[in-house]
Amino acid sequence: MLRGKKIGIIGTGNMGRALARGLVQANVIPADHLLLADRKAERLTPLVRELEAQAFGVDTLIPQCDVIILAVKPQDMEDLLKPRQHLFHKEQLLVSIAAGLKTDRLEACFDEDIPVVRVMPNLPVLVRAGASAYCLGQYASWPHGVVTSLLFSAVGLVVEVDETQMDAVTALSGTGPAYVFLLAEVMSAAGAKEGLPDEVSGYLAVQTILGAAQMMSDSDKSPAELRAQVTSPGGTTAAAIASLESQNFRDIFYNGVHAARSRSAELSQE
Is residue 242 part of a domain? Predict the structure, then answer.
């Protein structure tokens, strides 16, 4: 637990809500040390009631917090920070989950050297099974990374990367849940095409993905080793894999991830 520290979350959309719930449920901080702000009262009020956290206006929240998680849209960030830069100080840590916003752009909103950490979480933080990557800004140091890791481990796995790698993170884990949803969609449709009822095919597809993911998580074997383990020569799995490989499945997927990385880089420049 971050003993005695107060954590503020500005923005209680999907990601903000997920983080707030995760921090309290994982006992990272007591509920009365969690301060929440959002311009939409209809989002904020039920969350405050649920978690027994505290609600504040943004200007009141900022000076009280040791760590402030910025969970607002990228296009709203400068309008949030620049007029309020006098409310921040160097002993605070700012953690941004705004996609595409580099740390130097956030740091430029302040006259002081404010520590900033940029985090790229993904959608499964909503079920505390997220994959988050973070990078340190120029004024952030190792202890800031430790705090960030502790916060986001409440909603899943956390790794540190260099900021130059954040576009690749976005393409892999940030966009990744959609790849898995697409796989489930295709598997379900394929099962139905082969004669299964739609509902049965959907259940089997989802459970198969869930079970395979659990096996990979629990095993010390690589995905390639696990795949080889269930691919008997001349069997059904071998036939399926051979068909996919013959149609350049790997290149198709690699190209998709590369397209996501390229688009992430473009958005960072816009």
Answer: yes
